[in-house]
Amino acid sequence: MTGGRPGALDGPAAAPEHPARPTTPAPADAAVPPSPADRPRPLHEPDPYSTPPYGGPGPWAPAPPVQHPVTTPAHGTPAHGTAPPAPAPAAPAPWQRYDPWSAAPLQQTGAAVETREQRRRRGRRVLVAGAAVIALVAGGIGGVVGAYLEREGGIGGGGVELPQAGAESHTRPKDSVAGIAASALPGVVTLHVRGSEGAGTGTGFVLDGKGHILTNNHVVEPAGTGGEISVTFSGGETARAKVIGRDSGYDLAVVKVSRVRGLKPLPLGNSENVQVGDPVVAIGAPFDLANTVTSGIISAKERPITAGGEKGDGSDVSYVNALQTDAPINPGNSGGPLVDSKARVIGINSAIRSADGGSESEGGQSGSIGLGFAIPINQGKRVAEELINTGRATHPVIGVTIDKRFTGDGARIARKSQNGGPAVTRGGPGAEAGLRPGDVITEVDGRRVHSGDELIVKVRAHRPGDRLELTLERGGDERTVTLVLGSASGD
């Protein structure tokens, strides 16, 4: 150890690990605060550079280090030996809070002096960073507010958004009305007829892939012999059609389109299997509203009806042992299909009952009142086959003339025919079965007959060659006879 101030170390004073923080010298008589090793360690070691409040050392600040004379390189290095007496230390400058907007340089002993330009640059950086943060926060808040306003209908709740079911499959069960309609509609057509006898609209349905279409006779009748028939399919395609054959007695007709691809024939059911109460769907073009679908049930079977008769000579009267339905049928539905739950045709919609008890042709009110009638498909199939194969349909007959003036129960055979000849045709089915003028036929195959028209309906529901059992009254006695139906050509 060399000479010098007692307690001084040999050689240059060791520089502290961190720059010394200026402190206010404690009075000579003040107690020396304990060193950091003498006191409990706080939970977090104090930062030796942290600024204590109000510029003074904090309660946990370390004791001031021993001061040694230090000469900056500009003033030389102290020589070895006895150090000159240290000058009295100047009063250390108090710690100041950093003010980025202050024009005065930062006063801090042992630290580099920050210039005004550096403070300005730092201030700009702080300002730019703050603006960026504000922009990000504002953008996030704006997005949240925008989403809320969109959901709630805008400021003030002016818009309304109602709950709604999501998208669902368009597929429906095959036996539902929608499923039946989807299956049958492609085979249904709308007919527009124009000719010398007028114009009209009706419905028909495709029978086969050759272009044959079945409809009512009264639908195509206005075309006459030189008229025009236009067929419109469910998809909107149109084609010209020509009449293959028609029959007023059955009120059925077949027309044909040519060079049409993608035809969708409808499957034919069996009208003998139909029961009262069975669900049915009617498809047609009521009042020219194509592809109209209505539904209902079978209200009755074997309902004897007559329709037509506009000419007054009876030649255009049709006799139908009809299926009755409450499915709405209106003008324009004529000729359209009545289908069952498997989309099979069981009838051809042909007639309606009007509210005032008359038909539309008789001046009655048009429109459905839930009383519609369809030709059974078993009868329609037979007639359609004959019209396609020969151009004409055959009618089953019993070879007798019916007395239309009879008002009793049953069908009475007239005394003479309309032309004055015999009422029972010689050699006909009735004559061979033993029928006589004046006999009253009361049953056909065990089913009651109440009028002459009803007898004709029952007979025409069969084919020529079918065997019938008739119950009749003669002179107060009841007897039963059997006959084989004959055949007559229709118009």
Automatic annotation (TrEMBL):
Coiled coil: none
SUPFAM superfamilies: PDZ domain-like, Trypsin-like serine proteases
Matches recorded under SMART domains: PDZ
Biased composition (Pro residues): 49-67
Basic and acidic residues compositional bias, start-end: 38-47
Annotated GO biological process: proteolysis
EC number: 3.4.21.-
Biased composition (Low complexity): 12-32, 71-83
Listed Gene3D superfamilies: 2.30.42.10, 2.40.10.120
Spans annotated as Disordered: 1-92
Transmembrane segments: 126-149
Stretches assigned to the PDZ domain: 387-476
Record's keyword annotation contains Methyltransferase: no
Keywords for the protein's UniProt record, in alphabetical order: Hydrolase, Membrane, Protease, Transmembrane, Transmembrane helix
Domain of life: Bacteria
Top EC category: hydrolase
PANTHER family: PEPTIDASE S12, PROTEASE DO-LIKE 8, CHLOROPLASTIC
The protein's name in its UniProt record: Putative serine protease PepD
Species of the source: Streptomyces spectabilis
Organism taxonomic ancestry: Bacteria, Bacillati, Actinomycetota, Actinomycetes, Kitasatosporales
